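U., I forgot to send this yesterday:
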Amino acid sequence: MAVRNFWKAATAAGDDLTSDGLRFTVLDDFEHTGLAWIWSSDADGSLNYLSPGAAEVLDLPLPTLLGKPLATLFETDPDDPENRSGRPLGFQLKAHNRIADVTVRCALPEARTGRPVWLSLSGHPKVDSTGKFHGYRGWAKDISVEYQRKIEDSRLAEFDSLTGLYNRHRMARRLEGMLAAFKAAKRSCALMMLDLDRFKQVNDTMGHQAGDELLRQVAERLRNIIGDRGEIGRLGGDEFQVIIPDVDDRGKLGELADKVIQIVSQPYPIDDKRAIIGTSVGIAIAPYDGMETEELVRASDLALYSAKNGGRGQFRFYSADLKDEEEERQLLLDDLREALAADELQLHYQPVVRIKDNHVVGLEALMRWEHEERGWVPPGTFISAAEESSLIGPLGDWALQRACADATTWPESVRVAVNVSARQFTAAGFVDIVADALQSSGLDPDRLELELTESVFMGDSDATDETFRALKKLGVRLALDDFGTGYSSLSYLRSAPFDKLKVDKSFVDSCTQKDQNSAKIITAIIGLSKALGMETTVEGVEAFDQLEVVKSRGAELIQGWLYAKAMPQAHVLQHIQSGEFKIEPSGPDKHRPDRRSMFRRIGIIHGDHRYEAVIRDLSKTGAFIEGLVGVPLGTALVLDLGSGQLVVCQVMRSEGAQIGVEFETHLVNDGAGGLCTRHRVSPYALAAASLPVAAAPGAGPAALSASASAPQFMQVQVGSGG
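Result:
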């Protein structure tokens, strides 16, 4: 019998055993019960006995197992939370210590073909009276069912059951462990926080099952985008988090965030309908924005709120001057509610001009708000906040009433366009509100143009179609705004009675660049619009080279700064009273999308000296700086933009106290309409730097060396007006 052979082997190894037949019988019977099996190893660690029942469970011939080292025959599960030692089986066996209830599985390749078999392995080292080690004597049992259940329970505890992504608990542990390890190794780690724009509207209009399906599709898109570059988690609701190790290049992170925004914002097919959402992304990077978990999470949260309050569908990097955006947003809404009640909001109007004769044929109403403390609040900030609250309804109603009333003072050939949010459009009584605005003002319905985005098609298609029919019955015109930005579907044009398409500004911005297809897209949209009997307005024309491109592509109506910015009603009336309502184009010959005029104090480092100066003009490739006299052409400088942003540059122009510099490495988009360096000097390096740089926002420069040489340039004071 197998047990007799085991006993002989054990006796030969020095065990003091009797030849009591009853003992053999009991052991044989025990093995056949399948409750547990017996095993032993020799002094070299090779398996020299295993109950035949164990080989049957493993579905491997017994000779295949015997004679092989235990350390290579079995392996522990590295993710087993109950592996108390945390060490692999081979390490434990080599130490000749007692092993107790270690979960293992067969490591042989042929054992991986069927269902996984997990064993609980225990054993005692056999040592004779002289202290010589003779191997292990032990027992094992099949725990596959229990362990599989434990794996599933563990998975449920660490994974989001809806999307299959990591959950909040798992992401917090991963981030904490990663930051601790990376801090010791002086490595970087980026954290992206994102949530979905207009997700609540999907739940409200399409139901919670549709919302769940949407979240599953979002998770799949994120997996495809991120791949093996990082770890993705769903924190709950519509909040997601991405950990990206060893990346601090803000150019790459910005490109990735842009890709996430574009792909997540594409329409979702759900139950024969299309759900349209967007997303905003906040980015923080360790160690620059925080070295501890709580610091980094808060930084990415603040960046996310900044992105949402900036108009949504954007990304933001954390910067030290960001405030608690959630609190700021609530204060903003409170002030906006008071401003609306006190009639402190304004409508400004941007002309739509006919190219062939420069006549104004329409004006788009754009909301403006001058806050007594904040100054002019960007529309993208307060309108996006209103859209997430109940305030967008009253705000939209006010705009309709005011725009219709103002338009009655214009020539009858001039229309007024009013933007309508999806939330307004789908609200009960919207058609009545439009009818009331027309009736109370006396405006001809054909002179009112409602500008809609494709988000109005999300939800109940029957209700949407009914609203369209009712509006057309009133006689108002409908325009599809932001056409071609990625959400567009030709089915909208087939099913909805639009009178106009508006070409999005993003195509105009790049239409003069040879490596872009924007000009071709503009041509296609204009051709499509004409084929369907619609008008087309091209938005965002700011320079004559753009005007020539869109004109050559068939554009007839233009809206952009080349003709006029949005103006208050009083200025509109002045234009009208001067005679024919015509506006001649006036602006730069060429469009420079990356140039920003500013007044920003910076540090300039040359040798071991730091000078203070002012940036007047900044682009991706260089800057125009004022404040240093006597800087020769070709001088190499380092600009200290703060927060570890150091830019190596060369002087290409020098005249009086003004210099023009060219950057060695181009700046990148910071997500907020500004520019930033791809990389920053880490706090570790700044702490040890001998350069006179600002270690942190608001901090003074590091102390200069006692042996500093005399400064080579003269620094002059620059005021905001000079």
